[in-house]
Amino acid sequence: MRRLTWALAAAIAGGVLFTWIAGSTLIAVKQYPLAAPDAALRTVTLVTSNGQPVEGWLLSGAGKGALLLLHGIRADRTQMLARSRFLQAAGYTVLLIDLPGHGASPAPAITFGLREGAAVKAALDYLRRGDPRRRVGVIGVSLGAASYVLCTDCPHADAVVLESMYPTIEDAVHDRLHMRVGVLAPALSQLLLAQLPLRLDIDPAQLRPIMRMPALGAPVLIVSGDADLHTTIAETRRIFEAAKGEKALWEVSGAAHVDLHRFAPAEYERRILGFLGQHM
User: Model-level pTM?
Assistant: First the structure.
């Protein structure tokens, strides 16, 4: 019994240590400057309502409307550069930003879309100020998608593309742990989720983008790989079912949690331009 007790205590301590280290990694920011790769990209600096700077690039189009591109976690605006090129060639003005805690936009921690929404709002406000009458759309990938959906006071968008977005933080944590530790995922998930209020003053209930889908208020195209283990296709279908109004779903055959434009560029551009052409 004594050995069993010690073994159980060691297992619990090991689980706590593992999830604490994992939590530290997940919320850690990485800041670095980014130089525009060419003169067509104009550097812009925005400021959120709480005074936080947000860095981005603006690529001017030919009057079709404006699009805000939002990258995934542990990436930066360069992840969206290839998308910006074909969208600008189609006539759209494009704004790419670094979400807080990524690239050149500072933040104390990554908050999985909750506080990143302040940067999304600043960017949408900027695009609306440039021409209040033009139509504005959003393309968000993973964290970027969640950052838009979780933004409670963002200006209305006319069309929204959500790629590889998690439905709830509970699902996101479980999926990622299950890929690494298998049957231990449910127990370790609870240890990891318990850190949210301790580290970030966030309740897990605040990180459930699926609950915001019915009130999105814009035509939405939901995209995800059918081989994605970070956000399973069953979870993506739940998000689609939760959305109201005009909506479409594209399940990218064979794709995991990857850059879907890079995975299937021709089909991606055809579908995105078709959706935007209909609603923008």
Answer: 0.93
